[in-house]
Automatic annotation (TrEMBL):
GO terms for biological process: animal organ development; canonical Wnt signaling pathway; cell fate commitment; neuron differentiation; positive regulation of macromolecule biosynthetic process; regulation of gene expression. Residues 1-24 form the signal peptide. It comes from Salmo trutta. This is Protein Wnt. Ligand for members of the frizzled family of seven transmembrane receptors. PANTHER family: PROTEIN WNT-3A (PTHR12027:SF88), WNT RELATED (PTHR12027). Keywords: Developmental protein, Disulfide bond, Extracellular matrix, Glycoprotein, Lipoprotein, Secreted, Signal, Wnt signaling pathway.
Amino acid sequence: MFSETFLRMIYLGCLLFLCGLTHAIPSYPIWWSLAVGHQYSSLGSQPILCGSIPGLVPKQLRFCRNYVEIMPSVAEGVKIGIQECQHQFRGRRWNCTTINDKAIFGPVLDKATRESAFVHAIASAGVAFAVTRSCAEGSATICGCDTRHKGPPGEGWKWGGCSEDVEFGSMVSREFADARENRPDARSAMNRHNNEAGRTSLNDNMFLKCKCHGLSGSCEVKTCWWSQPDFRVIGDYMKDKYDSASEMVVEKHKESRGWVETLRSKYNFFKPPTERDLVYYESSPNFCEPNPETGSFGTRDRTCNLTSHGIDGCDLLCCGRGHNTQTEKRKEKCHCIFHWCCYVSCQECVRVYDVHTCK
Ligand SMILES: *[C@@H]1O[C@H](CO)[C@@H](O)[C@H](O)[C@H]1NC(C)=O
Ligand SMILES: *[C@@H]1O[C@H](CO)[C@@H](O)[C@H](O)[C@H]1NC(C)=O
């Protein structure tokens, strides 16, 4: 009768509009798939079609259309961030694996964990870094070198070259990467904080790079400019921040616009986190066994280090399950001889290595 059709209508409406909404907003940005998707593998050689990037909110779509020339750098930035994540976590149980899918990390980033904090921070730093670099290389018309932070020249050097404009790169990262983080919930607050922590660490690590000019390398004239560090420096720095990340608790406040969630330090006896620190409020799974729900792949068959007592050591990485050992033959250059003048010749030797993998 009435009730059944009515209920079905409500259910359908719910599915399509209301209840679906909470699921339609995943806690990680789907547009990160720009960095891994096959369809974007020829970045730079083909124009980016903003409408075909998955998961953009309206503000991001507008940004993409207005500044389409810097979108390849945005995508490149996410890629740099993910590569650095994989380097920093290579010997850990969760090693920043991506799957070739829209949900590039799987469900791992659904929870508000340290791992989520790190990925957000390194990706937003990556975007700021790549945009800043490409601007300094002159590859876009709307940006270029930084002329605002020169100050007086120092002793024995003068300003020269192209100072990298990290403020512009950070602005792009803030406008684009944070565009979807305006919800009044705790996860949005966490993502905003960690995204900004990534950009702040980039800003903190800018340095004066100098070059000598003059006859045969004599340093008669020295010119200097602001430069971003190697991205590895940012990765190492953020990894320290991951190790010392601050655990938070969620608080609800009633404000004029409704309920708003904010984060507060869980432990009052620790210093509250600064804008450079990473924050999280849910504990991580242990990543020992495969679990499709948490996105853990488990550590079976992972290569472990027999002599290390750290997390990459066989005890910890294999979660106490033990390990298998196989020998592997590798060809290497050996007995190299320097011939006058000027080349080196080598022989090829086969060396045998023990390779340990988790049971
Ligand atoms: C990362 O972990 C996955 C899943 O366990 C594994 O397949 C992959 O080889 C690992 N990558 C590295 C670099 O160890
Ligand atoms: C294994 O761990 C030891 C001790 O931490 C380290 O010196 C060594 O370089 C590691 N080996 C590899 C292959 O990573």
